[in-house]
Structure formats: C-alpha cells, structure tokens
What does this fold into?
Amino acid sequence: MANPKNGSCPALTTADGNPIGMQQALTAGPRGPVLMQDVQLLEQMQHFNRERIPERIVHAKGSGAYGTFTVTNDVTKYTKAAFLQKVGKKTDVFLRFSTVAGERGAADAERDVRGFALKFYTEDGNWDMVGNNTPVFFIRDPYKFAMFIHTQKRDPKSNMRCMDMQWDFWSLCPESLHQVTILFSDRGIPASYRNVNGYGSHTYSLVDDKGERVWCKFHFKTKQGIKNLMDDEAGSLISDDRESHQRDLFNAIERGEFPQWRFCIQVMTQKQAEKFRWNPFDLTKVWPHADFPLIEVGTLELNRNPDNYHAEVEQSSFSPSALVPGIGPSPDKMLQARLMSYADAHRYRVGGNYHQLPVNKPRCPFANYQRDGVMATAESYGPQPNYWPNSLDQAPEPNEQHKDPAWDLGQVVVDRFDSTVDHDDYTQAGDLFRMFDEGRRDRLATRIAGVLGQARREVQTRQLCHFFRADPDYGRRIAEKLGIDVSEFQESGMATAGA
It folds into this structure.
C-alpha cells in the first residue's frame, strides 16, 4: 500500500539512523517464516519489551506542566536564595501533581492525598519543593514510612485494598489523626489539580547573606479557589472519566487559562522554636497562622503542557535534597530520611544518570565528580578528572561562600528516641473538627465509619479512642454510625475527657 503522505516528512530510520525502506516483516516467501536478519523488526520488538520503567511506589499516577515563578515581594531579609533576590525576577518551573496511594491506572477523583512536586530551574541549580496538598502527614518517624505505604497498597494475600490493615496501622499510630481528619473531611477529594493548595509540609530553613538562619514552611495557595467533590459526585465522575484531573489541567492550559498559585512562607526564629507549644519540626503539626502569619513571596503560573508524557512527566524526578544556597533542611526526622530516599528511588527507577534527562537537568552550568553508569553522556565533564582533590586546571572546586552555617541545637544526644511519647496528637485534630459546621461533621463521620466499619471490631474500638480524645463529639458520632455503644467509652472517661 502506498504511503499517502507527501515527500515533506522526515525519513524513517532505525535507532542507529539507518534508513528504512519498508515497514513489513522480512520473510521467506509471502507466507513466512520470518527471518532473523530482519533487524528492523527485532529492534522494534526488543525496544517495545523495554518501553515501561517501574512505576513510582507512591505518587504513581500524575500529571505535569511547565510554568514560571515571579517574585512579587522582597524576602531578602530571610534568604540569600538567588532566584528570590529581586522583585519581578522570573524562574522557569516544572510541576507534577499526583495521587498518592493508587497505581498508575487509578482514577484521579479518588479520596486520597495529592502530591505537589515543584522543580525550580534556578541559576544556582534546581530547587525541588516536594510536597502535598495537605500541610501535615500521617507519621513523624521515618521508620514508619514504608510500613504506612504498605497499608495503603494491596493485601499480600488477597491483592486487594484492605481497610483492616489500613485502620489497624492508623489506630496504633495516633499521630496520624490530624491527617486522617483532613483526608476524610470535605477536602478529601479535590475537584481538580487547579483547585488545590500545595505545601512543603516539612519545616525547612532559610539562610540570609549574613549566615543567619530562620525556620520556615512553604505554602502555595491556589488562585482558582479551593474546590472539592462530594462522594457521590466523585463516584459519578469516575464512572465517566478516570483521567478527570489530568484532562482538566491539560485542557485549561491548552485554552490559555493558565492556573496560578500564590507562594507564601511562614517564618519562625530559633527563640520562637524553643518556646513553641509543639515540636516545630513535627510533620504532623501545623504552625498556627495567627502566631506565624503568611508572608507572600511570589506567583506561580503553569502555562505550557509537556510534549511527551513519558519523557517529561513519567521520568521527571524530584528530591528534597535538591537545595539551593539560602534554602536548607531542618531537624525534621521525616525530611532527613527523604533527603536520601527520593534520589535513591530515582536512581533505581529511572537510572543512575536521571539528572541528565532534559526535564531533570539544571538550566545552569554544573560540574561534579560523578561518573559513568548506564546512559552516561559525559556532556558535563568530558575528559576532566574523576577524582578530587586534584591539581589540574579547570577542574571543579568547592567554594566556601556556599557553606551553610553550623546548626546550634544545644546539648543534644544522638539516639533512637521513641517518637510516640511526649507528643500531643489530639489538640490540632480536635481543633480542626470543631471548625467544621454540622454538615461537615456528619459527612466526616459517615465517611470514616464507612471504611473503618470494614476493619475488625478491636481495631474500630482502638481508633475510636483517638477520636474521643480529639473531641468527644468526634468519637460519639463515629461510634453511633458504627453501631457501637458509647457507654463503654463513657465508663472509661474517654467520651468526656476530650484530651
């Protein structure tokens, strides 16, 4: 059959650039068999077998877009980060949204936390702000992270999502209550990626040009407004469109309706940290805005869709360890673990040279002594030495002006401390519950009872104790919907203590 295209199309070639004359199998006679010398066919089949890379263990289903960040306010008294030094300065960015627990084929409109991973291509290298649409998380100890994710995935025997193991874990980890309350509230199912906030969640540090440090939290407030789906709306939407969030984001950008977010920070001094009611580095806690108000920094806009999903979204790789001078980590235990684990995951999933892919590659000059590995291009180092220190000209050298100031944390002991003791895991969850009106409280209790009811009775009872400690009405509503007699909690004082 003749090719209907005109002669303006590029020539079809093999991966080695060899021109291809026909796209039919090379056979011995019209009925076959196929010959081993058909290298064009062999190359196509061999590559096809390798088209997929392992999906992310978490945040597997996602959508991404390019955009621009513009500084709108002067924050130089807090940080020396170069891309924040001038009002009006613009920096290119790439943002990947995601769901957390589901696989790549999961529906967008499921009840789940949403990932908000943002890469700034700054003149001092990439800064990755790897967060979620919630300001807190389920756990504070990194030892629990893999265990928690296992409970969100499939049961090893049935290969189905299991409410018993999910709530068994949560009921044994009361620090999860704050995030559980958010997840099952009316904000648990965003209407679209354009209608979510983004949070760094962790506490980070900012360092100014004098070497003085403050602690901070990052917030991205949607200018489109928060919009969420009720359970019946989400169920109806999923039945028609499992890619609803991705479709909404992609089509909005194609139409020129570029979504925007207001980037703000909260700032806390070391003296304030020492007096703060809660551990300021606890990922399960927020900093009240009344005490630490939002300080506006700039505006984020998404304005360009990727050209190829696999190359630019599936292979995009974000790590909290991608930090620029002026922005650093904190003693947050979960953050400390993520500084290693994310980059390590990318090296396994994408490859040891994932930084060399265009979507991950810094837009500024870069040089180091990392060498070789699968798909190494040597583009950034060529014949330069692969060791340091060395006495050769033009070889990269460290610059002490970029050295972070030391952490003065006082008399500290390095040990494996029990993260379950001496923590208040109930006040903030209870405060959030008391902010809800009657309708929201009832829907929250209905949703939780609907899934907690699938767990064993002992798990239900254990979890109810946490709800009662946060607020007696919180526990009472869920107990009633589970058909559990509240009197057993009243006898123990749990239903009235509220603490």
Notes: DSSP finds 15 helices and ten strands in the chain. The radius of gyration is 26 Å. Residues 140-172+426-494 form a domain with the Hemocyanin, N-terminal domain fold (CATH 1.20.1370.60). The chain has a mean pLDDT of 91.
